[in-house]
Design goal:
About 55% of the residues lie in helices and about 10% in strands. The chain is of the alpha/beta class. The chain has one domain: Rossmann fold (3-Layer(aba) Sandwich), CATH 3.40.50. It has a five-stranded parallel beta sheet with strand order 3-2-1-4-5. α7 links the parallel β4 and β5.
C-alpha cells in the first residue's frame, strides 16, 4: 500500500488511461506512462469504479489478450481504490443518459461523471474528451483529441 500525501487531490482513473498504459502501440502510451509515474510519485489517491473495470477488462482482453488483463489486475489496480456502483448511482447515471440523449457518451461515462461530482473529484486521468466537455480537468489532454476505447 502506498503512502498518500496530505492535500493531494484525488484523481479518477478512466478506462482510456488504463488501456493506454497497457498498449505500447497506443499513441497515448508514452504520455500515460509518464503521467502514471507522476501520479504515484506525488501520492494522488486514485479512484475508479467497477463499471469502468468491466469496460477495461473487456477491452483489454479483446484487443491485447488475457496476459494484459493479468498485468492490469496485478500491476495497475492494486494502487487504485475501486468504488462499487450502487443502485442510486446506477439509476442517476441512467437518468442522465436518457435525459441528455447523446449516442456518444456511454452509461459507464455517465457513472464516472456522476461519481466524480458526488465525490468532488475535479480531475480525470483520461484520454477521453467527454470528461473535459463535462467540465472536468483531463490530466492527459491528448493533442490528437479523443482516444475512444469502445
Amino acid at each position: 500500500m502506498r503512502t498518500l500525501k496530505r492535500g493531494v487531490e484525488p484523481v479518477f482513473v478512466d478506462t482510456s488511461a488504463l488501456y493506454a498504459l497497457l498498449d505500447r502501440d497506443d499513441h497515448n502510451h508514452a504520455n500515460a506512462s509518464k503521467s502514471w509515474a507522476r501520479l504515484l510519485e506525488r501520492g494522488h489517491p486514485l479512484l475508479t469504479h467497477n463499471y469502468a473495470l468491466v469496460e477495461a477488462f473487456a477491452l483489454v482482453q479483446r484487443r491485447l489478450g488475457v496476459e494484459a488483463v493479468r498485468v492490469l489486475q496485478q500491476d495497475l489496480l492494486p494502487v487504485v481504490e475501486i468504488l462499487w456502483v450502487d443502485q442510486a448511482l446506477h439509476q442517476g447515471a441512467v437518468e442522465a443518459l436518457l435525459a441528455l440523449g447523446s449516442r456518444s457518451v456511454s452509461l459507464v461515462d455517465r457513472v464516472s461523471f456522476l461519481l466524480m461530482r458526488q465525490r468532488r473529484i475535479g480531475t480525470a486521468f483520461a484520454f477521453d474528451d467527454d470528461f473535459q466537455q463535462e467540465g472536468f480537468k483531463i490530466l492527459n489532454a491528448s493533442p490528437r483529441g479523443s482516444s475512444r476505447t469502445g
